Amino acid sequence: MGVEGCTKCIKYLLFVFNFIFWLAGGIILGVALWLRHDSQTTNILYLQLGDKQAPNTFYVGIYILIAVGAVMMFVGFLGCYGAIQESQCLLGTFFTCLVILFACEVAAGIWGFVNKDQIAKDVKQFYDQAFQQALMAESETNNGKAVVKTFHETV
C-alpha cells in the first residue's frame, strides 16, 4: 500500500532522520572501538601507577559507548527499514526500542547523579597521580608528556 502527499513526505523524513541516527551510532561505535583498541589510548588507560590502574569509570565509559553505538545503529536500521517498507511491525518495534532507550537514559542519568561524587573523586585521583608520574618520568615519550600537559592545562 503506497502513501501519497504529505504522508509520503513524512515517510521520507522519517527515513532521513533515522539514517542520520544510524550514522551517528556508527560514528559513536567506531570512536569507542578506536578508543578501546588504539595503542596510544590503551597505554594511557592501562597506565600503571605503582600498584594502581586507571579507575573502572574509564573502562565502563568506553564499554557504554560501544553498547550505545551498537544500539543506535540497530534502532536506526529498524526506523529506516520500517519507514521504507511501511511495516507496522517494524515501526512498532522501533517505537518500543525508543521507549526502552528513553527509560535507560533516565536510569543512567539518575545513576550518574547519585554517583557523581565518587566518579569525580576517581577521575581526580587518577589524574593527579598520572600527572605526578608524568612529571617524574624521564623516559616517557614526548607524546605522552604532551597529552598529560594538555589535560593539565585545559582541565
How far apart are the first and last residues' alpha carbons, in Å? 57 Å
- Compressed to H and E, one letter per element, the order equals HHHHHH
Q: What Rg, in angstroms, do the CA atoms define? A: 21 Å
Q: Give the overall shape, derived from the CA principal axes.
A: elongated
Largest sheet: none
Strand content is: under 5%
Tally the helices: what do you get?
6
Summarize model confidence as the mean pLDDT.
Answer: 81
- How many independent structural domains? 1
- The low-pLDDT segments are none
Task: Write up this protein.
This protein has 155 residues and is mostly helical. The protein has one domain. Helix content is 85%, strand content 0%. The protein has helices at 5-37, 39-45, 56-85, 88-114, 116-136, 142-154. Its main location: membrane. It comes from Steatornis caripensis. It is a multi-pass membrane protein. Belongs to the tetraspanin (TM4SF) family.
